[in-house]
Amino acid sequence: MSSQMVMYDDEYRRITQVCDKLSREANARMVYVIDKNGQLITASGETDKLDSTSLASLVAGEIAATGGLAKLMGEKEFSTLFHEGSRDNLHISVVGSRVILVVIFDNRSSLGLVRLRVKKSSEELVQILEGMLKRTQAPSQQSPFAEITDEDIDKLFG
């Protein structure tokens, strides 16, 4: 991310709702939203069956490596990756150049359906992310810690 964003509870809930809806509509086993640093933002579906922390860091690493390949080939980035396995498939996409959307699905769904639903969900996520960025960059909107004075800190730790 080019600038630091702060996510409030409302945005977290909205992002989670997008994941829940995508999971249902794409008939996916699991859906994850991960930041480009490899931190899990939220997940939906059968997430107890997978080490989400490892998945998040590996996917972020893969996106970074793929970014290097894209630059080598003169591309800005490869925004979508697909892995087909014998049981499960992974659809990985970069959303709004800020987060990574991972959809894990099996033979109960299809790549076409997943791609269609990911496109709509990505648009919703971009709107949420843009709202977060605008709020973060707004001059009237300061850090949640801006109201804390040196006197408050002295009282707390003094």
> CATH superfamily, please?
Dynein light chain 2a, cytoplasmic
Strand order of the largest sheet: 2-1-5-4-3
Number of helical segments with 4 or more residues: 4
DSSP helix fraction:
40-55%
From the helix content, strand content and strand pairing, which structural class follows?
A: alpha+beta
Enter the CATH topology name: Beta-Lactamase
The biggest beta sheet reads:
5 strands, antiparallel
Describe this structure in words.
- With 158 residues, this protein is of the alpha+beta class.
- The chain has one domain (9-157): Beta-Lactamase (2-Layer Sandwich).
- The protein has helices spanning 9-25, 52-72, 111-137, 150-157; strands at residues 30-35, 40-45, 80-84, 89-95, 99-105.
- It has a five-stranded antiparallel β-sheet with strand order 2-1-5-4-3, sandwiched between helices.
- A hairpin with a 3-residue loop joins β4 and β5 (99-105).
- α1 runs antiparallel to α3.
- The chain starts with 8 loop residues before the first helix and ends with a helix.
- 26% of the residues are buried.
- The model has no long low-confidence stretch (mean pLDDT 89).
